User: What shape does this take?
Amino acid sequence: MLFSLSIMAAIAYTALAALIFFAQSSLIYYPESGRNLIETPGDRGLGYESVEIPTSDGETLHGWFIPVPAAAGAVLFFHGNAGNISHRMDYLLMFHRLGYNTLIFDYRGYGQSSGSPSESGTYLDAQAAWRYLTEAKGVPPARIVLFGESLGGAVAAWLAMSEKPGALVLASVFTSVPDMAAKIYPFLPVRLLSRFDYTTIEYLRTVTCPVFVAHSSQDDIVPFAHGRALYQAAPEPKQFLELQGGHNSGFIFMREDWVEALGKFIDTHLNASS
Assistant: This one.
């Protein structure tokens, strides 16, 4: 009987490992929850342009460009793995208040963008958005802030390795997908099973721009230790802001602190690079 139970346990373990291996994409990306746009910047009183951004491999990304008069620069926004650009309206209001134009877009497979999401695809999407902002909109690289939340932080950090933005902001971001998987499935050899990297902490080691890291000690999805590790890996000049609240509510709890701290950081370093 013990032998039979051991065999059954081994089969169940192997089946779970196989499921994790083959279903990784659906565990990382939630595009179906982010297909429908629930509102537009216009619903919040913001003027905006609806834009289509071509990628180098033939996809078309949908996004919004929100201008402000006499803008001090521009924010290129990378959202997390669920929802779409219409779920980030509070951020758009914040950047508008700070006096920065914003380009926010949906990755392939999200919102009204074509295609299906993948790690390599999100990197191509990042490059396409950067080209649009620097070429079509004519924003100098040194006046661009890359802002990434959660998974979007990994994409933003990857882009910051090859481009020269004025600053990089990471909000509630993980160190890597394998690190996150090890937290969720400590009983599985997830580092061997993982087909995704998004190694934010490694990207940061070669970033040369100022870095702002924000993370909540109460984050219920990405451990606070990830945020601290990213801050330690980031080059100087850098700043850490400890948030309050859960993974998706830290911005709400800390709105005024966010606006003040981030505004000062961006203004200081973008003006210094001018």
Observations:
- The two ends are 74 Å apart (CA to CA).
- Residues 2-22 form the longest helix (21 residues).
